[in-house]
Amino acid sequence: MNTTVEDLLVLPGQGKNINDHIFITVGTEHTGGVFSAMKVTLAPHQLLAPHTHDTEDQAVYVISGEIEFEVGGEGGLRFTAPAGSFVRKPAGVEHCFWNATDTPSDYIELNAGERFQRFVEATANGAIRAAIGSDKKYGVTINYARVPGMLAKNRLTSVATMNMPWEGMAPPKFG
């Protein structure tokens, strides 16, 4: 075996830093394109916008705090996942989640395949730029039309990866 400990062990804070809240700890380049693992922090009152992955299943493990999930689009299943929970998000099913609390929530996200990791990496150059054509490039379709309503309904103040605070202003109307 020509492997070193450094090839196998990822210590806290190590990995590929995408922005101030996403670390790719195990990338598809380490797993033959099979899966990636990311450690993510969801800020208080922050939404991860409704979206669908064409081909990639995902699983989330909530490390700390609690996260509200909606799986199945508007009118789909809605539930709270406390620390220690796993949540499966099947490919082809719209989902979103948010932190409705006043404290950050940390989670690990496991992604099957490499397309979602490529999308996340692209957000380092700007989330909006990465989102343009993301359905064709990465198989990720974002449902922008639902964002303002989700922010208002759930008293959220920002959208993850977009660095766009909504507090004190009316969310823009999409579509």
UniProtKB/TrEMBL annotation:
In what residue span(s) does the Cupin type-2 domain sit? Answer: 39-108
Which InterPro entries does the entry mention?
Answer: Bacilysin_H2HPP_isomerase, Cupin_2, RmlC-like_jellyroll, RmlC_Cupin_sf
A Pfam family reported for this protein in Swiss-Prot or TrEMBL = Cupin_2
SUPFAM superfamilies per record: RmlC-like cupins (SSF51182)
Name the domain of life this protein comes from: Bacteria
* CDD domains per the UniProt record, alphabetical: cupin_RmlC-like (cd02208)
How is this protein named in the record?
Cupin 2, conserved barrel
- What species is this protein from? Plesiocystis pacifica SIR-1
| Organismal lineage | Bacteria, Pseudomonadati, Myxococcota, Polyangia, Nannocystales
